[in-house]
Write a structure and sequence with these properties.
Keywords: Oxidoreductase. By secondary structure, this protein is α+β, with helices and mostly antiparallel strands. 35% of the residues lie in helices and 17% in strands. It has helices at 24-28, 43-54, 75-83, 86-92, 116-133, 146-152, 178-185, 193-196, and strands at 2-3, 9-10, 65-71, 97-104, 137-141, 159-168. Strand 1 and strand 2 (9-10) form a beta hairpin. The structure holds flavin mononucleotide (FMN). Flavin mononucleotide (FMN) binds at residues 30-31, 88, 140-143, 163, 188.
C-alpha cells in the first residue's frame, strides 16, 4: 500500500511498471478523476506549475504557450467547466483549478509557428510533472468545445485552445460513480517499448 501526498491510502498503486527505473515523478504521475472538492490549490503550487511550463524548451525559444487559469469557485473556472464535454464535466468540477492550454499558432506578423502544438504539449508536461512533485494530481482533457472557449475568453484567431488540464488534490476512487470508479482503479497500460522504437542500433 502506498500513501499519496494528500494522505489517502491507495490500495491500487498507480506507479508505472517499467523495465528500468524512472524519475519518481514520471513513474508516479497518473490522471485521476476523483478530486477533493474541499481542497483549494495553494498560490505557491499554482505558481510553481506555471513556472515549470514557462521554462520548457521551445522552437527558437518562441514560447508559443498561453494559459487561462481558473481556480474553483471563480467565474473563469465556471466558464472553462461549462465548455467541457459532459463526460469531463461530471468529475472536473471538483478539481481545485482548471487551466486551458492555448497554442500561439502564428507570430504577430502572421508567420506560422509550426512547432506551437509540440511546444505547448511539452510545456504542459512540465506543468503536470511539477504539480505532481508538489503533491497534486493533474488530468489533461481534449474533450471540450474549442469555440466556446474561444468565445468565452475572446481569443484571437492566432490562438488555438488545445487542451484543458484539471489540477487538484486526490480523493478516494470510492467518491466516484461506479462506472468512473472502475476506470480509476483499472491497471494502467502502455504499448511495449519494442513497438515504440522503430529502429535502434
Ligand atoms: C491530449 C489529451 C487529451 C485527453 N483527453 C481526455 C478527456 O477528454 N477526458 C479524460 O477523461 N481523459 C483525457 N485524457 C487523459 C488520458 O486518457 C490519460 O492520460 C491516458 O489514459 C493515460 O493515463 P495516465 O495519464 O493515468 O497515465 C487526455 C490526455 C491527453 C494527453
Amino acid at each position: 500500500m502506498t500513501i499519496d501526498h494528500a494522505g489517502i491510502a491507495d490500495a491500487h498503486p498507480r506507479t508505472a511498471d517499467t523495465r528500468t527505473p524512472l524519475l519518481d515523478v514520471l513513474a508516479e504521475r497518473w490522471s485521476p478523476r476523483s478530486f477533493d472538492a474541499g481542497a483549494a490549490i495553494e498560490a505557491r503550487a499554482l505558481d510553481a506549475a506555471l513556472e515549470a511550463a514557462r521554462w520548457a524548451p521551445s522552437a527558437s525559444n518562441s514560447q508559443p504557450w498561453r494559459f487561462i487559469v481558473g481556480r474553483r469557485g471563480t467565474p473563469t473556472f465556471g466558464r472553462i467547466h461549462a465548455a467541457l464535454a459532459s463526460g469531463n464535466q461530471a468529475w472536473a468540477d471538483k478539481a481545485a483549478a482548471l487551466i486551458v492550454n492555448v497554442a500561439e499558432t502564428t507570430d504577430l506578423d502572421g508567420s506560422p509557428r509550426p512547432w506551437s502544438h509540440y511546444d505547448l504539449g511539452q510545456s504542459v508536461a512540465y506543468l503536470a510533472a511539477q504539480a505532481h512533485h508538489d503533491g497534486l494530481h493533474a488530468h489533461q482533457m481534449g474533450g471540450f468545445d474549442r469555440d466556446a472557449v474561444r468565445g468565452a475568453f475572446g481569443l484571437d484567431e492566432r490562438f488555438d485552445p488545445v487542451s484543458v488540464i484539471a489540477i487538484g488534490a486526490l480523493a478516494s476512487p470510492d467518491a466516484l460513480p461506479e462506472r468512473l470508479r472502475e476506470r480509476e482503479v483499472a491497471p494502467r497500460r502502455r504499448m511495449p517499448l519494442d513497438e515504440l522504437v522503430l529502429h535502434r542500433d
